[in-house]
Design a protein that fits this description.
Elements: H1 3-25, H2 29-50, H3 56-64, H4 67-85, H5 89-94, H6 96-124, H7 131-141, H8 146-153, H9 160-190, H10 197-227, H11 232-253, H12 257-270, H13 281-307, H14 317-340, H15 344-347, H16 352-359, H17 365-372, H18 380-409
Helix pairs in contact: 1-2, 1-13, 2-13, 2-18, 4-11, 4-12, 4-13, 4-17, 6-7, 6-9, 6-14, 7-9, 8-9, 9-10, 9-12, 10-11, 10-12, 11-12, 14-16, 14-18, 16-18, 17-18
């Protein structure tokens, strides 16, 4: 299928789903889009099994989209930049210690806990999957998704400090999550015999610190360029060029694209590009990137729903999905509680804040993209099925009930 036709069909389907949601269903944007996409994909699967010609075009569209490459190499940079550009850096600095703990130690703990628990449960239900593949599953599903988090918490009643922590964590934890994923994947492919730990450590340092330095340098250059002009069209082009150039250079140098883009967004967004007090270029640029964020979000979640038509059938499909959801919630809760035990202000006098942070830790397109990027193995479909169930549950169920969890945990006067 021609590239332009694929893009055109994606935009048309996204516009149709969005209109149906706004006009009739009236669920919060992202949740409504995902729900419609899932329902239509399930109907497509049923119709395709009865009469393939009727559902032909939607099925062909799903099969012609390289979801992993589209999300990780194209869309992710723009979505992360838009999220980090508008993030309140003063609040982030205040909550930097818990954000750092959760985006590093928390992700590692979640990976280990999830892998161990999932392995134990699969043994219990006589589903054979090696422990290393359980850890691989944990590495791709443990990082919270900045796109899903950003879309859901916009309409939530999260207290300001918790909103900053969950937003900051979701922006930064992809770097460590991707390195963990690549390392464990290399271990599975080599059989554990040729894994070089020194090389792995060097990879981590290069990916993380190289990405941060690249983002700050390019962010500074773009900021200085935008600061010297008032023509809004040129300012927008410079910001777009910033994201694209970072993606190209980071890919070439094997740096972390997510960390580079987030660093650039935080640096460029932290300082105003307005030349004087009467000029509003910075505010207009924020609105532009918010629009980009909302449109790409819609297309991304439509793509998630469409990819369900490619999901292979498994005999224990529902069992794997249900087990995965329970295990990731337990792993998430424990991986928050252990690091944040050192921050009594956040934990306060009870466990309620940890419950909120657990429920607000959503998974999204990045986890599915990583699952789809896995090379073929007897366990790929199990991981993919589990990832789909977790993502759908987190966006739809956790997204719809987040405010209820907040209301049950925090008195009204403490909310933002």
């Amino acid at each position: 299928m021609d590239l332009f036709v694929i893009i055109a069909l994606l935009v048309i389907v996204s516009a149709f789903y969005s209109y149906i949601n706004v006009r009739f269903i009236k669920l919060p944007g992202t949740i409504g889009i995902v729900t419609i996409a899932i329902v239509i994909s399930v109907i497509t699967i049923i119709v395709d099994s009865l009469n393939p010609s009727i559902a032909r075009y939607l099925t062909i569209l799903a099969k012609n989209i390289n979801f992993s490459r589209t999300v990780l190499n194209i869309m992710l940079g723009f979505l992360l930049f838009s999220g980090s550009f508008s993030l309140n850096t003063k609040r982030l600095k205040k909550e930097m210690r818990p954000v750092f703990m959760l985006s590093t130690i928390g992700v590692i703990l979640s990976t280990v806990i999830f892998g161990g628990l999932f392995y134990g449960v699969t043994i219990l239900f006589h589903i054979h999957i090696p422990l290393v593949y359980c850890f691989l599953f944990g590495a791709l599903i443990s990082p919270t998704d900045p796109v899903a988090v950003g879309a859901i918490i916009k309409n939530s009643r999260l207290p300001v400090n918790l909103e900053t922590i969950i937003s900051g964590e979701s922006l930064f934890n992809d770097g460590i999550g991707l390195v963990l994923f690549v390392t464990i994947l290399e271990f599975t492919e080599s059989g554990g015999d040729n894994l070089d730990f020194a090389k792995t450590a060097l990879l981590f340092v290069r990916e993380v610190f190289g990405g941060i330095i690249l983002g700050v340098v390019f962010g500074f250059i773009a900021f200085r360029l935008m600061k010297t002009i008032t023509d809004f069209q040129t300012i927008v082009l410079v910001s777009l060029a910033l994201v694209m150039s970072i993606s190209v250079v980071a890919t070439f140098l094997h740096f972390s694209i997510p960390l580079a883009v987030v660093s650039a967004g935080l640096f460029a967004g932290n300082q105003t590009i307005n030349i004087d007090s009467t000029e509003h270029s910075h505010q207009a640029l924020e609105k532009f990137w918010q629009l980009i964020d909302e449109m790409l979000n819609t297309i991304l979640f439509v793509m998630i729903g469409l990819q369900m038509t490619n999901l292979p059938y498994l005999n224990n499909y529902w069992l794997i999905g249900g087990v995965s959801i329970v295990v990731i919630l337990i792993a998430r809760w424990l991986s928050i509680m252990i690091p944040l035990a050192f921050f009594k202000k956040i934990v306060s006098n009870n466990i309620k804040n940890i419950n909120i942070l657990t429920w607000a830790g959503l998974r999204g397109g990045i986890s599915i993209a990583l699952a789809l990027s896995l090379p073929y193995s007897p366990y790929r479909h199990i991981i993919l099925a589990g990832a789909y169930f977790i993502v759908i549950f987190s966006v739809v169920v956790q997204g719809l009930t987040l405010n209820k969890v907040i209301d049950a945990s925090i008195p009204k006067e403490e909310e933002k």
